[in-house]
Design brief:
The chain has about 425 residues and is of the alpha/beta class. It has nine helices and 18 strands. It folds into three domains: about 160 residues, Spo0b-associated Gtp-binding Protein, Chain: A (Distorted Sandwich); about 170 residues, Rossmann fold, CATH 3.40.50.300; about 70 residues, GMP Synthetase, Chain A, domain 3, CATH 3.30.300. Strands 10-11-9-12-13-14 form a six-stranded mixed sheet, with helices on both faces. It has a five-stranded mixed sheet with strand order 3-1-8-5-6, with no helix packed on it. It has a four-stranded mixed sheet with strand order 15-16-17-18. A hairpin with a 2-residue loop joins β17 and β18. The longest helix has 15 residues.
């Protein structure tokens, strides 16, 4: 089976803690602060790599954690920046944040990168906190925590050619005949449930990739019968082989089928409906006369489409069809895609903080800014604590807590810290 979805967990590195230290020099009684900054935590970055073909490896490895930045040292030595963690993914991988379902990246070119978890900033050493009023600050910042999230990866099938058509018209039979792929073929609808890729080999070492997708039905553009999933798979193919059952073996009318499927394509995406189509008139072995085929040929003539009468069972007509498709591929010119280059990644925008009550009555303050502040403060140090209190006042947390009805002695929780409320 062709696996094209995966879930992974990514976590960037925490920033290194800043250092608090002072110069010790002979004959200099009071050396100035010289604690260096912590290093940058490692980013987690997805990289499109054309040597990776499937998402199958992510079945066995799901957790990806980048390293933390090094701690700052005395003598203004900076901590080491951690290396980024690079995760190779197939070209064509679409990345979403699982929780919010927002699109983070669409990696469509070899080498294209997307940062999916930003490494934490290194904490500043005490050297940074000198002021004219305080020449000997003892506090330093801790490193900023990293980010973590679950991602959904989805691989759009990158085939050159897509097989399109109603169920049971013979799409899988064609792929079986022209490639080494072995999709199931049977006389009932929806035999194929997942897209399958096959490599079509032609003489002189020419080859292309063809995708067999499950049959489309009416309403596919609205998502009926997993239509969206399947249409998405053929969105990036260069050429479509539209397979029609010309024998009318199931009471189908090929012209009606053709129009309906194109109606679905047009409803789904304009780009998809403009894609070049070659018509494969299948099951000619079942024709008692050629009226149906003639009618189809005339209809397609008027619309400038080429018709290839074939029998997927015996293989009749397939070499000609494949050669023709090859010619079209050779002259194919890629439509510029505006969204291709763009890597969409925005750090989350959230309100400064939110307050809610836990079951035990404690007031819990959440929010990226306040949580970062707590994580980066060293509460064992007096000056750090005072700085925290200043920022706390600045954010008007007191006011908000009082509005929520906080009383002297109530418990307040932020991130990993818990304290008793005092006015
Ligand atoms: N007589 C005849 N039967 C064919 C031909 N091509 C396919 N069939 C039969 O038609 C039925 C459906 O063929 P599939 O290849 O499974 O059709 P499909 O389009 O892949 O169908 P789904 O996967 O259900 O969408 C099978 O019973 C095939 O044997 C043909 O050229 N002649
Ligand atoms: Mg099939």
């Amino acid at each position: 089976m062709f696996i094209d979805r995966a879930r992974i967990f990514v976590q960037s590195g925490k920033g290194g803690d800043g250092m608090s230290s002072f110069r010790h020099e002979k004959f200099v009684p009071k050396g100035g602060p010289n604690g260096g900054d912590g290093g940058q935590g490692g980013n987690v970055i997805l990289v499109a790599d054309r040597n990776v073909n499937t998402l199958v490896d992510f079945r066995y490895r799901r957790l990806f954690k980048a390293k933390p930045g090094g701690k700052g040292q005395g003598s203004n030595k900076f901590g080491r920046d951690a290396d980024d963690l690079l995760i190779p993914v197939p070209v064509g991988t679409v990345v979403r944040d699982e929780e919010s379902n927002t699109l983070l990246a669409d990696l469509s070119h070899d080498g294209q990168q997307a940062i999916v978890a930003k490494g934490g900033r290194g904490g500043r050493g005490n050297y940074h906190f000198r002021t004219s009023a305080n020449r000997a600050p003892t506090f330093a910042e801790r490193g900023e925590p990293g980010e973590e999230r679950w991602l959904r990866l989805e691989l759009k099938v990158l085939a050159d050619v897509g097989l399109l058509g109603y169920p049971s018209v013979g799409k899988s039979s064609i792929l079986r005949k022209v490639s080494a792929a072995e999709p199931e073929v049977a006389a009932y609808h929806f035999t194929t449930l997942n897209p399958i890729l096959g490599v079509v080999d032609l003489p002189d070492q020419r080859s292309f990739v063809m995708a067999d997708i499950p049959g489309l039905i009416d309403g596919a553009a609205e998502g009926v019968g997993l239509g969206h999933d399947f249409l998405r798979h053929i969105e990036r193919t260069k050429i479509l082989i539209h397979v029609l059952d010309v024998s009318g073996s199931e009471g189908r009318d090929p012209i009606e089928d053709y129009e309906k499927i194109n109606g679905e394509l047009a409803k789904y995406s304009e780009k998809l409906s403009r894609k070049q189509q070659v018509i494969a008139a299948n099951k000619i072995d079942l024709l008692s006369d050629d009226t149906n085929l003639k009618r189809l040929q005339q209809y397609m003539d008027e619309r400038g489409r080429d018709v290839f009468p074939i029998c997927a069972m015996s293989g009749e007509g397939l070499p000609e069809l494949m050669e023709y498709v090859w010619k079209l591929l050779e002259t194919y010119v890629e439509e510029p895609d505006e969204t291709d280059e763009e890597v969409i990644y925005k750090p989350e925008e959230k309100p400064d903080f939110e307050i809610h009550r836990d079951d035990d009555g404690a007031f819990v303050i959440t929010g990226p800014r306040i949580e970062r502040l707590v994580a980066m403060t060293n509460f064992d140090d007096d000056m750090s604590l005072r700085r925290f209190q200043r920022i706390w006042r600045y954010m008007e947390l007191d006011k908000m807590l009082q509005k929520e009805g906080i009383q002297e002695g109530d418990t307040v929780r932020i991130y990993s810290m818990e304290f008793e409320y005092r006015k």
